[in-house]
Amino acid sequence: MALIDLSQPSLWISLLSIAFNPTFWNIAAQQEYRTHWITRLFDGDKYRGCYALAATIFVLGLVRDALFKTALLSQPSCDALDAAPVRLVAAVLVGAGLTFVVSSTFMLGITGTFLGDYFGILMKQRVTGFPFNVLENPMYVGSTMSFLGTSLWYAKPAGVLVTAYVWFVYSVALQFEGPFTTMIYSKHAASSTSSSSSPASSQKPSQQRKKKL
Predict the structure, then answer these.
(1) DSSP structure string for 86-144
(2) Mind listing the pLDDT tens digit for each residue in 24-35?
């Protein structure tokens, strides 16, 4: 029996959802930076706009996770993965992944996590405490670990393949987010006349996000 059933629509729907989320938040946030379209929807309140985008991203993440689980359950299991040691590894991966995601959100706050810098809500300095002292992008890494752990827990080889796809999607997203975020902070540093401005302010703290998303 094949280890991956490509005929299942749920698998393709899950893959589309995984790709859609970072595509959506990158396009929405970059357009907000250029046109302030979300801020205008909230009568010029950039904080409410950012919170609204954060809520949207969070809900999309829940939908993505539900679609992923549905896809997993429709896929064949592998007897070699259906073992206690594998489940132990799976539990560690999920636990560590969630730790990275939750601790990142705690350190960055809502606006730091969910693209606040695109709204003009800039972080004053780069966050260097855990988990950013061990990983450059702990939210993306943590999310990927959770995908892998869930796949191993259910003994689904298809899930392992999807996890590789998740990491690829996140890696592509970073290629867009990194340069754009650098540009935001570089422009802010260049236009600032405050004597308190420092090179640290031009670094890219928002690259330290992202949501499990």
Answers:
(1) HHHHHHHHHHHHHHHHHHHHHHHHHHHHTTGGGGT---SS---STTTTT-SSHHHHHHH
(2) 999 999 999 999
CA angle 130, 21, 24 (to 5 degrees): 110
Residue carrying structure tokens 């990194």: 178
Q: Report the 10 Å Cβ neighbour count for 183.
A: 12
Residue type at position 180: F
Looking at the whole model, is its pTM more than 0.90? no
Query: CB of 14 within 8 A of CB of 54?
Result: no
Residue 181 pLDDT grade (very low, low, confident, very high; cuts 50, 70, 90) = confident
What is each CA distance from 198 to 26, 116, 124, in whole angstroms?
27, 20, 10
Residue 201 pLDDT level (bands cut at 50, 70, 90): very low
Which H, E and C letters describe 160-197, residue by residue?
A: HHHHHHHHHHHHHHHHHHHHHHHHHHHHHHHHCCCCCC
**130 residue type, one letter:** F
Q: What is the pLDDT of residue 127?
A: 85
